[in-house]
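Ticket 4471: requesting a sanity check on a complex prediction with flavin-adenine dinucleotide. Repro inputs:
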Amino acid sequence: MARLTILEHREIAENMMWLAFSAPQDLRYTPGQFLHIRVTDGVDHLLRRPISLCYVQGEGGAKSQAIAVAYRVGGKGTELLRKKKVGEELDVLGPLGNGFTLHEGDRHALLVGGGIGVPPMVELAEQLTQQGTKVTSIIGFQSANVAILQEELSRYGEVLVATNDGSLGLQGFVTDYMTEELLATADRFYACGPTPMLRAVQAKMDGKVEGYLSLEERMGCGIGACMACVTSCRMDDGSVGYKKVCKDGPVFSAPKVVFA
Amino acid sequence: MARLTILEHREIAENMMWLAFSAPQDLRYTPGQFLHIRVTDGVDHLLRRPISLCYVQGEGGAKSQAIAVAYRVGGKGTELLRKKKVGEELDVLGPLGNGFTLHEGDRHALLVGGGIGVPPMVELAEQLTQQGTKVTSIIGFQSANVAILQEELSRYGEVLVATNDGSLGLQGFVTDYMTEELLATADRFYACGPTPMLRAVQAKMDGKVEGYLSLEERMGCGIGACMACVTSCRMDDGSVGYKKVCKDGPVFSAPKVVFA
Amino acid sequence: MTVRDVDMSVRIGPITMKNPVTTASGCFGFGKEFADFYDLSVLGSITVKATTIEPRLGNPTPRVAETPGGMLNAIGLQNPGVELVIAQELPHLRRYEIPVFVNVAGTTVEDYVDVTKRLMDSEDVDAVEVNISCPNVKCGGIQFGTDPLQAAQVTEAIKRVSRVPVIVKLSPNVTDIVAMAKAVEAAGADAISMINTLVGMSIDLNKRRPLIANGVGGLSGPAVKPVAVRMTYQVAQAVSIPIIGMGGIMTAEDAIEFIMAGATAVAVGTANFVNPLACPEIIEGIRQYCLDHGIASIRDLQGAAWKELA
Amino acid sequence: MTVRDVDMSVRIGPITMKNPVTTASGCFGFGKEFADFYDLSVLGSITVKATTIEPRLGNPTPRVAETPGGMLNAIGLQNPGVELVIAQELPHLRRYEIPVFVNVAGTTVEDYVDVTKRLMDSEDVDAVEVNISCPNVKCGGIQFGTDPLQAAQVTEAIKRVSRVPVIVKLSPNVTDIVAMAKAVEAAGADAISMINTLVGMSIDLNKRRPLIANGVGGLSGPAVKPVAVRMTYQVAQAVSIPIIGMGGIMTAEDAIEFIMAGATAVAVGTANFVNPLACPEIIEGIRQYCLDHGIASIRDLQGAAWKELA
Ligand SMILES: Cc1cc2nc3c(=O)[nH]c(=O)nc-3n(C[C@H](O)[C@H](O)[C@H](O)COP(=O)(O)OP(=O)(O)OC[C@H]3O[C@@H](n4cnc5c(N)ncnc54)[C@H](O)[C@@H]3O)c2cc1C
Ligand SMILES: Cc1cc2nc3c(=O)[nH]c(=O)nc-3n(C[C@H](O)[C@H](O)[C@H](O)COP(=O)(O)OP(=O)(O)OC[C@H]3O[C@@H](n4cnc5c(N)ncnc54)[C@H](O)[C@@H]3O)c2cc1C
Ligand SMILES: Cc1cc2nc3c(=O)[nH]c(=O)nc-3n(C[C@H](O)[C@H](O)[C@H](O)COP(=O)(O)O)c2cc1C
Ligand SMILES: Cc1cc2nc3c(=O)[nH]c(=O)nc-3n(C[C@H](O)[C@H](O)[C@H](O)COP(=O)(O)O)c2cc1C
Ligand code: FES
Ligand code: FES
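Returned structure tokens:
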């Protein structure tokens, strides 16, 4: 837990904000982890907001200078968060949870992001590229006005964009890009986005490409203590049980996730 | 009700703040009235804080440029208020209530203020001076570190200061200055401060000088609708009943006030 | 799903409110003060401060305290008594051409009946709201608010003498709010209003005593909204008379939450203290919400949270 | 009035807590997660999540919602069952050398008795806290929490099999909290903890359905503090067993408010989610408050709000 100074804060698409703040000392993180951010010091919005780590500027550990996240202003808490100005402090817990697993030998990874599921793909792309894995990003949005991070991701490899209304890229869904040919070239996939997208991706990849899904759930504590954020998973013994998104996840091995 | 821009905000003594903000259009006011200030847009501190109008910069009506108040940071709401910066907006209701009555023919008025009861005396001194009434201010504080507005008041006439610990001016109470001689020269007195002070002033002045007391009470609405802020008063028919500090007061004719 | 205009009208028994928003008793005085801020005729109705048979001085001060997300009050039914209310407070409200609901309080069944009888002499009363739930007066009605049998008795007694609709206001300080609601419905109540305040306390650490002179006070404001919404949701499914929902409504969204929970109309209380324009802003906000969501009549949202999806 | 050090210790029956702060059940898991943030041995005691005889999966999600000044939860007693709790969760807590209170839940009196009996086989249980008040499980104990007779029965039954002190946790969703407290005291309870959550609801305007999958949830956090303080104040004057007060404690001042109301110890719940360091900060804050105010023993403040001034 730390109070971190806001370094950048600006709108990057309609109601989509880019927020960078100073990194805590000895930052340790993996892509896919989240930060648990308090939006006010008062009690009117008590719970912290989980927001994925998007990008870490500088090198790891004590050398990293800033953490950036990208978030959508949707409800009351993010509305308050948007009002914070450069120079103000932010009460941040984390990085928390279980991020994406990188596999050293991978030659080609597909990064699949939908809407506010796109941000964690940036740091993931960075780290995959660094270890020599080629990256193709497939990202989907409602429409062009809320599209984010396309440019950032294009630094690491090809970016395929889909929008529901066709206002940017392909008209359709991210899964429309997932041809047999493309999947045949991929060693791994990493996906984050709305549940319907994750369900479709899981089905599409099943038996073809191994990979990970990053899930969302409403949280209380964010650290595994309150049992608020459970999600159905296939356990090691084959039964279906609950895992905690905040602690066991948010990232799970794709075949383990059981959608309702 | 208006959203007014903060023009000045600084500490003038220990935990005593000076706050000036733009005046609403067509400001009408009398000294002794109060402003009902919201300290947060959130719900964690729901009730407005009543703070006396201290000074109006510029001329009356549309010509006035700024309203200033002086307040003590004591509880949670004023702690939040203190954090507001120049340029931010303030949600202000008022000026509200029944201020001090000025009497044109008065030659000499005693202004008695204790602690955070001193602020309303400044605008009162200004207006009395303008109508040709000579002003003597008698102000009391716990100690020198929380003394405020002595300089401002000295622009209008003599200022007599008392502190409980003797760290500034006379060691003692404001009433210690109220000699028979002084009272004999006064046509009117105006007092605002803690209840024990007001009670002592009322007793001292009784039958000698006519005047007014400005009272404090915890408020709900500030506009006379909720009955939170009642205080015991002698009614026109001689009985004792409740008057509302927010609407009938905060200023009452001294003999009408019945202290518990 | 575009609608041109929204039908905002609702019915509380035989009374039509042109929109679903009334004021919560005790939070709006007798209207005068708010008339300085806006034209009261925009309101769906006005509900005035509790009235007793005799004038009452109420409790000593402090009478209010701030709490996280809410406030405590223990005004103690200060009011000039029903005679003066009829003579001096109610007549001026007629000019706004909106229904006037008069909140009635007392210590015994006879008190309630006497106030109601007296109010029947006035042409300025469109409904009585029976306050069986004020937590701030010793023997001041709370026993009627926590016992279904006594609640039914006082309701019946008032129904017998009232020629206007009788709204019974429920206390949330009970184990079983549904039992209370059913009891007053069976006793003839024309509508229910809910909730009155939760009994609470704040302690002044410096004085080492309760902050409010009365000791306990009634908790209101956003803090209580989840309790009020839950009770409205439960009661709306158990009775068939209309409900006026309240407890922490600050915005149009809050009002719609109560309507979806099953309230026919809503009352705005504490919000008036924070923002004197709360009521007109909420009314406009509800209209705008309906326009934005293609809702032709506010009545279409009533109970939406438990009714079958269309 | 200067004191050098503060005696922070309090007693819950035969148990000594070195300071008055424990964790609220369900808000601290089994401690593990918070051990990453600080050394749990600073706590006065630790109260762990509710345990049932069989493993329970709990309710579907969403299980939590934010409300003004508070939150709703409907976890639904998810827990691995008493066997696994004894085998895997409790042993590691011994190293902190603080009393461990185990929250016990069930559907029938037999359930409660069976869990308690099983816990008696463990050396790692210093007290059982009987959760007769969880509002989030159908038939999950709430009937015991709202009826004095049933509360007494379950208390007696547990007392008969427990060799450690029995703390009974009261529900605030009742008309008469004092009657509940007296009933469990008469039935042999060694202490009372209060309050559990208020039953509330939030509605998702977009879905037009309750936001929490379970429909209703339990309201906790600062919003409920005035209700919790009021009940503590009333119960403390009516019983002679110690009270563990809770409901919305975020700061040391909040904790002291409960102690002045009559609580012997306090529990911190929701605050742990907002600030994982809440408990140690509150403990230090209480100590500092006592130093600043010349209070030699925290016990001197217990009930100060209603005891005669010294
Ligand atoms: C692991 C994880 C990572 C996330 N990463 C991002 C990200 O990088 N960028 C981004 O824009 N959003 C992200 N989200 C979603 C983000 O947490 C919610 O959009 C946000 O909490 C909504 O807060 P609000 O104040 O706008 O809404 P409100 O409606 O005011 O929120 C009320 C409560 O509900 C919770 N809540 C509401 N919506 C969601 C949701 N979709 N998921 C979880 N909790 C929710 C809030 O946290 C809060 O507790 C992530 C969610 C999770 C679980
Ligand atoms: C008519 C009037 C004029 C005032 N003028 C001034 C002034 O010019 N300068 C100044 O410093 N103070 C003034 N006060 C006192 C000021 O209102 C309180 O100090 C302030 O409200 C305390 O708020 P807080 O957030 O610090 O305390 P908190 O303890 O957080 O306040 C909690 C609640 O109690 C109320 N409250 C607490 N103390 C008082 C009090 N002494 N009087 C009334 N309400 C109180 C608050 O308004 C709030 O509703 C005036 C009070 C009144 C009634
Ligand atoms: C200051 C104050 C005075 C009140 N007086 C009354 C009253 O006289 N009669 C009554 O039935 N309810 C009274 N109430 C309760 C309100 O009408 C309403 O039921 C409650 O405050 C919840 O709504 P809110 O959260 O919007 O304020 C009063 C509430 C407050 C805050
Ligand atoms: C997420 C959550 C889970 C809870 N689980 C339990 C539980 O298992 N057993 C219990 O007796 N109380 C449970 N409670 C109630 C708390 O122990 C406590 O009584 C209540 O939250 C009030 O305290 P607070 O406002 O400090 O949170 C739970 C509360 C929360 C918020
Ligand atoms: S949010 Fe508390 S366990 Fe995941
Ligand atoms: S504060 Fe509401 S009547 Fe004075």
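Notes from triage: Chain C has a mean pLDDT of 94. Leaving this open until the requester confirms.
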